[in-house]
Amino acid sequence: MSTAMMNEATAETASPSRSVRALGALNFFLADVRDGLGPFLGVFLIGQGWSAATIGYVMTVGGIAGMLATTPLGALADATRAKRAMVAVCAVLAILASLLILFVPTVPMVAASQIATGIAGAAIGPAIAALTLGLVGQAGLAFQLGRNEAWNHGGNVVAAALSGLFGYWYGLPAVFVLMTIMAVGSLVALALIRPSDIDHEVARGLETGSQEKGSAPEGLKTLLRNRRLLVLAACLMMFHLGNGGLLPLLGLRVASDGSVDPAAYTAATIIIAQLTMIPLALVASRIARARGYFLVLLAALVALPIRGLIAGLWGDLYSLVPVQVLDGVGAGLLGVAVPGLVAQIMRGTGRVNVAFGAVMTVQGIGASLSPSVGGYIASTFGYSTAFVTLGLFAVPALCLWIVCGAMFAKPDGDGRRERETSGGETASL
């Protein structure tokens, strides 16, 4: 039996089945919650008379709030045993934020809702990563990350399809109602995860049955001393500086010219991408177990410049298909690679989730600036220039990742880790 098959079998047999199934359902329902209204927000606000630049600025405010909150919330996910409660609070906060936008679509209220949504999204990422690691451990992580992402993207497909239909039949306010229903579903799934099935020390990166278990976590300075973690964060920041504004701009371009129904078009952009992400996430988990995460992230970085060029140079309605297929390639691969790489890099430190939060904070700098940058370029030079420019932001990230590739080109399934110590040495554990 191959190593990948043995790891897969271990992941399926060593984990409490009901809680793992509930984790899949949780990822399904959170798909429409963790990112808020996403591109539907821009379409809704265009209908309220907002400009593309103003929409971009409001989205940036929410992105900055999430960016600032992610690292401390990652530390909370490491420290607390109330990981399920973290997710529950985020789901309720997302419901309240979406209703605020629907009933009071003013600049201050929408900005406040985006701040709340940004903080909720910042907490959900590390909390789900901690729950996953605590339920399946390092040996089953790559396999389970693929399943998590497949469930998450499946939830996005269903939510986007229903949003498109309900938005077409009843108007965009129906999208807000659907998001509330999905949030309630996430609370039900969360309740089915048994607290006793979560190993909270493993959830923060300490090892079951090793001398590390029960020992004190390393200091937070380990985040700044780990070169692999810093390289990963820098690459993701540049990637998201280009990626974050592309999908909202697609919706804004259609809403501005009135050529097709904006709700249906926005739903189509999401569905095409998410249908691509489902198989890509499963393939990425297999590649990660067999050959490591380096190739997975490399492919994600390559997809963005090509996507920006197609959106900018082709630019008609039919370009939607390849543009969003490539979006699915990038997001499907990153969803597996990023938490897996962080867990691999920080294994044994007891700081996995705060490191994941720190990486999300750095990539959030790019993601929060992207809508404003894209909106400004679109308003000043046109949508085509904006798409091409955003796509090219990933090129420096791609170059950095290739240059530093030897630091990451190890499979995750061998149970070993290399990390920098405070003295700059590399130690194998």
Automatic annotation (TrEMBL):
Superkingdom of this protein's organism: Bacteria
Domain spans labelled Major facilitator superfamily (MFS) profile: 1-409
InterPro entries: MFS (IPR011701), MFS_dom (IPR020846), MFS_trans_sf (IPR036259)
Keyword entries, A-Z: Membrane, Transmembrane, Transmembrane helix
TM region(s), chain numbering: 50-73, 85-107, 119-143, 150-169, 175-193, 229-251, 263-285, 292-314, 320-342, 354-377, 383-409
MF-aspect GO terms: transmembrane transporter activity
Protein name as it appears in the record: Predicted arabinose efflux permease, MFS family
Organism: Fulvimarina manganoxydans
